[in-house]
Amino acid sequence: MFTPHTKHDVEVMLESIGVGKIEDLFQEIPAQFRYPDLNLPPRLTEMEAAAELESIASANATTKELLSFLGAGAYDHYIPAAVDNLLQRGEFYTAYTPYQPEISQGTLQAIFEFQSLICKLTGMDVSNASHYDGATAAAEAVILAYGHFRNKRKKVLVSRAVNPQYRQVIRTYMQAETTLQIIGDDPETGIEPDMQKFIAKIDHDTALVMVQYPDFFGRIIDYTQLIETAHQFGALVAVAVNPTAMGLLTPPGEIGADIAFGEGQSLGIPLSYGGPYLGFFAVKDALLRKLAGRLVGETVDADGKLAYVLTLTAREQHIRREKASSNICSNQGLMTLAATIYMSLLGKHGFQQVANLCYQKAHFAADQLSGIDGFSLVDEWTPFFHEFMVKCDEPVEEVLEHLLQHNILGGYDLGQDYPELKNHLLLAVTEKIKREDIEYLCAVLQEENHG
Amino acid sequence: MAEPTIFDLSVAGRKGITFPKADVPETALPKGFVRGKLQLPEMSEMEVVRHFTSISQKNYAIDLGFYPLGSCTMKYNPKINEAVSRLSGFAAAHPHQPADSVQGNLYLMYSLQEMLKEIAGFAAVTLQPAAGAHGELVGTLIIHKYHKDRGDHQRTRILIPDSAHGTNPASSAMLGFEVVPLPSDSRGNVDLEALKGLCDDRLAGLMFTNPNTLGLFDENVCEVVKTVHEAGGLVYGDGANMNALLGVFRPGDVGIDILHFNLHKTFSTPHGGGGPGSGPVAVAKHLVDYLPDPLVGIVEEGDEENAPLYGFIHPAKSIGRIKSFNGHFGMHVRAFTYISMLGKEGLRDVAEKAVLNANYMQQKLKGTYTLPYDRRCMHEFVLEGFWKDVPGIHALDIAKRLMDYDFHPPTNYFPLIVHEALMIEPTETETKETLDRFVEAMQKIAEEARTNPELLHDAPHNTPVRRCDELKAAKDLVLCCYVGDDWPGEIV
Amino acid sequence: MLVPENLKYQKTDEWVKVEDGIATIGITDYAQDSLSDVVFVEFEIDVDDEVKVGDSLATIESVKAAAEVVFPVSGKVIEVNQTIVDTPEILNESPYTEGWLVKVQVSDESELEKLMDAPAYDAYCQDR
Questions:
Q1: Does A318 touch chain C (CB under 8 A)?
Q2: Could you tell me which residues come within 8 angstroms of residue C11 by beta carbon, excluding any fewer than 6 positions away?
Q3: Residue C70 domain flag
Q4: Interface test with B, best of A19, A53, A163 (most B CBs within 10 A)
């Protein structure tokens, strides 16, 4: 099937090697362990496999069949047809990492354009060629900051309104650094939008202050005072960014962030049950040398022609080995390409339009929902982008179950991560949601009330 | 001519796509938070398509030709994988959906975990890691936590053979381990005497690639594992080279404690120009509780009438979450499809043909190029890319000249223990005719090195660009398109 | 390859010159040559840091390689050559003069005895 050898080929090749049969090539493997009898299902032809996979896929009910208000880190945006059509070019997806620039200019130029787009979107100076996802990018921000102060500053402050999975991954990555404290996301410090308790924790021992923009609850918080305070104490500031919101909001680079990173899934990447996604990561010039991961730069070839190459590679694991700041090797190559094509297609107008549609529709939904008995908007005076918190009088499990029976994925149960937000729902509204969808959601919830 | 960038191609006022107008009453934008400028390109859809099609044609790829990059396993990526991973049941599933609405996905992940366990002989598998290096990080986190939980705080050393991939020491260092290099013996195996000398109560573990990056199966594998275990250490297997072992040998059977897979090498998921990869990690029984949180498991057993209910389970002593959501699910779908189509016979066939192809090429080339470890290889082999009697020719020159013959060069300058290394991995999907053409090109290049060395020094000649000035790239850093403040982008 | 007579050398290719208890430290001609074009220098220490033999001093990156520079003597850092950070090519051009890296107030001059003199270092390099 995927091995082209005829019987004759095998005979000729074995003869050339000087052995009688293929098994003779494996003599160095201890005999008692050679050729285990694997207990696997019988092999399928392509036709059977296609049917089998169709059958497995059809056991799911997804955002295609269901009306979805789920977000909380992954968003259902419209992906223009040209994105996937271009991604399926074998020249892109069956290429390796562009270590040989002479025959990898396609991948290299696409990454160079990706870096440029991320810089423009976030207002930062330099972007790398990506991390695995938003959560691992968050961990890399902590590693960068901790290393930047040569492990001398022992505190990293992470807001409780940063995506809970990002905070978990940061703690997983840093568990061997016993003297490093990751603090600021306790219930006592809380999630008040004025951030005063959080800001009060910044001191001379703080390496990094991390916040999210809009935050995990969709709120647009003014971080001016926080960033000023952090900088007064010499600490770095990392802002996790929702890239779609950048079509509308002042970018983190303009409010003084040292690091901007985030989950790039919204940029033309399908939900795909959680991956593969895309972690983007950009910094101000002063931190350029501290960036982990791959970087593409411009240069010229032997004929003086413009060309792109991987540059500053001496920072990376294949050269520095145990001295490297990160072990990252692969990036999310094909996902950066998807994001680059998506941003090129949407351009200035499309990007603005999507951000604006998300904002308008989310506000309409919030307004409609707050008119239903038993549901109230939380933090209604804090601006929000395309996600918002709703408090339910009924147990949230029952609300979600009721909605699912009416083919609605009703949002994210915040009680899973925040005990203080038991019976709170986080709803996301993208450009794909129509007015009648929102009205249907409200009608079903009304029915729940009276039913 | 160089292809302009998307910013060069932009003309203010062009649109690639428009969205429907808002169907809800307008809400005022948040005061004080609205940006004034958004400098993104403005192009029509066709221009975008032409641009990316045009740059794609400057790439070499498996779909275009032979890609014998050692240790990267550039095998053919079956098209069926791409088709099924795009089924809406998979591609449109939100990661926060309730488990009972995505039983298909959970079944697929559970089954892939089971398949990988069986293929490599382990007790449990996590699919969370995003890539091989990420899998290694999981492995070193497990080693760290395992010793810590046992109060073995003095175990701070990880032994790493000198032939190992650079991610091995980098991953170990991220956990604060002291990296101790382990020499190879004259046959390319781990030097057993040196290993014994380093096995004391400071030993946390050994990172062991087998077959190693020389393409050689370590004949002392049982002895190596036993030695490390007797000293109280764990053995981490780097599964980068599993392609040679499918259906032939299971690392778990000889007591290897942890192993990562590279779905993008062994199990045919595409390399994507540098990712996304996928690096599931398998562990032996005593380490199951340490796996990342969560795992996919059966939460309610099935019976004759009902399928089991799949869901997430939480290992008791877990190292924690290593990534958002559930790993690179799209890659899981592809690998599951590939393994389903191979079955046990097909897997063994893959390993056998990969090893056959490598040994055939090694045999054909070893007269022309020096083979520093002259023994049976597995799925790849390493040659020296220079000749003592041809001064001034380096592995790099040979690599670049191969491009003129329409081949991707082998991996060069790795592993570090071979001078001017050329590391060749043909994979099982290549025909004998292709291998013969490559061998012929390599022989011609060896001849050219003597008769017309300039051809090599100036190579490549026929590629979209020629050798690039890497010093200029690093000194005069230009890391994004120049877009000045006057570039249009006002928000109206 | 240049190996000035008046300096002491460490196996990891650092040179040191001590005058009035102050050690000036840099990398050797051999080191800069094997690195080739240096593009970046990052100091791992600050002025006033107390350092020991073997502590990390700086990381030097060229296009294709990275090298760690370690202290050949113990003491207190009194001066760091910041010019290097802006113009790292000085390391290639004049490793023994303008390319010095740091100055250290030496705490134990007996440590110098463990270092190589010029002929010994020269022979050591020839062997590699």
A1: no
A2: C116, C124
A3: yes
A4: A53
For residue C94 the two structure tokens come to 């004049």
Cis amide linkage into residue A98, ω under 30° from 0: no
Chain C residue with CA closest to B470: the answer is C63
Q: Contact C64/B470, CB-based, under 8 Å?
A: yes
Chain C residues with CB-CB distance to B479 below 8 A: none
**How many structural domains does chain C have?**
1
End-to-end Cα spacing for chain B:
36
Task: Name chain B contacts of C64, Cβ cutoff 8 Å.
Answer: 470
pLDDT at position A372 is: 95
Chain A residues with CB under 8 Å of C34 CB are: none
Residue with tokens 């175990």: B155
Alpha-carbon gap, residue B84 to B87, rounded angstroms: 5
Write down the CATH superfamily of domain B350-474: Aspartate Aminotransferase, domain 1 (3.90.1150.10)
| Neighbour count for residue A432 (Cβ, 10 Å) | 18
Task: Extract the tokens encoding B80.
Answer: 């069926």
B451 touches chain A (CB under 8 A): no
pLDDT in tens, A106-115: 999 999 999 9
Restricting to A residues 248-307, those with a Cβ less than 8 Å away from any Cβ of C are 289
DSSP state at residue B69: B
CATH architecture of B80-340: 3-Layer(aba) Sandwich (3.40)
Q: Which of A244, A257, A267, A282 is nearest to A140 (CA)?
A: A282
Q: Which of residues 352-381 of A touch B (CB under 8 A)?
A: 352-354, 356-357, 359-361, 363-364
**Residue C12 belongs to domain with CATH number:** 2.40.50.100
Residue ranges of chain A with pLDDT lower than 70?
315-330, 448-451
Chain C residue with CA closest to B477: the answer is C39
* Domains contained in chain A, CATH given: 67-77+347-450 (3.90.1150.10), 82-342 (3.40.640.10)
CA distance linking residue B416 with residue B423, whole number of Å? 11
- Asked if the ipTM is above 0.90, the reply is yes
Identify whether the C-beta of residue A246 lies closer than 8 Å to the C-beta of residue A121.
Answer: yes
User: What pLDDT is stored for residue B166 in this prediction?
Assistant: 80
Strand duo C22-27 + C14-19: pairing: antiparallel
